[in-house]
């Protein structure tokens, strides 16, 4: 699915973004909530207003999980196993939301990285985030 060069690029991007995980993650979540309001239902018990502690905390968790998966993409299923179970059986998140968040994450990355988010980086990240969403959805089958 991804070449060695693409895997290296993805890993490097997420390593650079880890220090700003809270900003990237909360921005992607806000984009998802604005574009797909139905996704807010899973967060009704939390304050998800811009800049809130809950939003920033969850956004950071998401980015750190993605960054962890990027470290060894060939082991993505193993890395994400605990999150698969959590989202499928305990939280019962509609797996479509993983695709929606992936799209919003791409937009956030494009805004944050600007010209560094080249067409090659965009294509590689799109493939990686699609795989990430697919792996999270595996427990639903």
UniProtKB/TrEMBL annotation:
Gene3D superfamilies (UniProt xref): Globins
Entries under SUPFAM superfamilies matching the protein: Globin-like
One Gene Ontology biological process: hydrogen peroxide catabolic process
Keywords, alphabetical: Heme, Iron, Metal-binding, Oxygen transport, Transport
Keyword RNA-binding included in the entry's annotation: no
Gene Ontology, cellular component aspect: blood microparticle; haptoglobin-hemoglobin complex; hemoglobin complex
InterPro entries from the UniProt entry: Globin, Globin-like_sf, Globin/Proto, Hemoglobin_a-typ, Hemoglobin_oxygen_transport
The Globin domain, residue ranges: 1-141
GO molecular function, one term: metal ion binding
Family: Belongs to the globin family.
Stated name of the protein: Hemoglobin alpha embryonic-4
Organism of origin: Poecilia reticulata (Guppy)
